[in-house]
Design a protein that fits this description.
five-stranded antiparallel beta sheet; Uridine Diphospho-n-acetylenolpyruvylglucosamine Reductase, domain 3; alpha+beta; single chain; 438 residues; CBS-domain; 3 domains; 16 helices
Length: 438
């Protein structure tokens, strides 16, 4: 024995070890074969698969056969790779012990671990996988037939692994918890890369499934409708003044809607006299309950090929109207065209003072004030408008000049029409933040 240093002692080389080294080299090749097989087969592009199907050689048929049962193929590769790697570790340990002797158990473990790991990673993993990635079709053609034979040989063991994997997968699927809308909303709040417009659209998507028809419908007082007894001249005047493409027609009251008038159906009759029987061109109205979710309504619109629905309560009274455009605006924001008139539902009177229409939606109010969208969730009850919010907070009717304050925001009734609050003066206290109102 020759002492080379204080770490190890050289025992000499026995020619018999040449057989062990050759076996070790062959095992490393098999490990490379197993590692590259998985990469090559799963790197085949659609055009490669087409080439394989067209050529139809024996190896090509083997490739298609392997890909047809991926679970068993992967199980075979894993069994082969792990089995060979274990043998490589054991054989390498014996070869090293036959050539050198380490003076310290710590050095013995460290040197063997580093050396064997380096050999396995470089020659058994990195090189074959890089090669397979660059030449997947050629590599697959080489390994297809041997791997097919090994799959048959290892089938009993592969079957056990596949069945155990399927069992664990079923259990994991049963225990899987979908991300909640609140968690998704929180994740959206933490993102930094999106622009303001992108965040608004993503927020609209997140809130979409939780939004009810009553949250976004046009209330009955704002519905433009035609009396069924009206003459054709009045109908044409209503069409021109409203700019709408679909207008409900009612008898006696808005609670008794007999159909929807499509403006496009009237274009060919534009020159007809006042006595023209326009009522025969009404289309059936589509009714929905006020608590329906708008994601469900969107599916119904698509299935029934309608663009407008009349919202009714439990007694069948008309509560409002909702169009396809209203639903889409919940995601993408306000949609306007050349026929839309700008809605000035508020005026800014001072730095912290605003005058709002009583029928302004609470969400629009909060948007103008750049306040938290859930600010009045505990106060608004079933109310959807600023006037309704005031009634919910007061629990009584309000008259001109009456005021209420909530969350640092003072609401004052500026004008009243009958029993309806028409205008509301909104004043912000000095400690109420407003960043984007204009």
């Amino acid at each position: 024995m020759i002492h080379y240093c204080s770490i190890l002692v050289y025992k000499g080389f026995d020619p018999i070890l040449i057989v062990s080294l050759i076996i070790l080299l062959l095992l490393i090749c098999v490990s490379a074969f197993a590692s590259g097989s998985e990469t090559a087969l799963f790197s085949l592009s659609p055009s490669d698969i087409h080439t394989v199907k067209c050529r139809g050689t024996k190896s090509d048929r083997a490739i298609l056969n392997l890909l047809s049962s991926e679970d068993y193929m992967l199980a075979t590769i894993l069994i082969l790779n792990n089995l060979v790697n274990i043998i490589i570790v054991i054989l390498s340990n014996n070869i090293i012990d036959s050539i050198v002797e380490f003076t310290s158990p710590g050095w013995n473990f460290t040197v063997k671990t580093v050396l064997v790991t380096f050999i396995l990673l470089l020659f058994g993993e990195i090189i074959p996988k890089v090669t397979a990635t660059h030449f997947p079709l050629a590599f697959s053609s080489i390994i297809a037939l041997p791997l097919s034979g090994l799959r048959k040989a290892f089938k009993p063991f592969s079957w056990i692994l596949v069945k155990m994997g399927e069992s664990f997968n079923r259990r994991a699927a049963r225990n899987h918890t979908n991300i909640s809308m609140d968690e998704l909303s929180d994740a959206l709040e933490m993102t930094q890369d999106q622009s303001v417009e992108e965040k608004k659209m993503l927020s609209g998507i997140v809130d979409f499934v939780n939004t009810s028809v009553e949250d976004i419908m046009r209330p009955r007082l704002d519905i433009t409708a035609i009396n069924i007894e009206s003459g054709f001249d009045e109908v044409k005047h209503t069409i021109v003044e409203s700019g709408f493409s679909r207008i409900p027609a009612y008898r006696d009251s808005i609670d008794n809607i007999e159909g929807i008038l499509y403006v496009k159906d009237m274009l060919q009759f534009i020159g007809q006299p006042d006595g023209f029987e326009w009522r025969q061109h009404l289309r059936p109205a589509y009714y929905i309950p006020e608590h329906k979710k708008i994601n469900d309504l969107l599916e119904e619109f698509q299935a029934n090929k309608v663009h407008m629905a009349i919202v009714v309560d439990e007694y069948g009274s008309t509560q409002g109207l909702l169009s396809l455009e209203d639903i889409l605006e919940e995601i993408v924001g306000e949609i306007t065209d050349e026929s839309d008139k700008e809605e000035n539902f508020y005026r800014r009177l001072g730095e912290r003072t605003f005058l709002f229409d009583g029928k302004t939606h609470i969400n629009d109010l909060l948007s103008v004030l750049d306040a938290d969208g859930a600010l009045f969730d505990n106060e608004k009850g079933q109310a959807e408008t600023v006037a309704g919010l005031m009634l919910e907070i007061k629990h009584d009717f309000l008259k001109k000049g009456d005021s209420i304050t909530s969350h640092g925001i003072k609401f004052t009734v500026d004008s009243v029409e009958g029993h309806r609050i028409d205008k509301v003066l909104v004043e912000l206290s000095s400690d109420t933040a407003v960043t984007s109102a204009s």
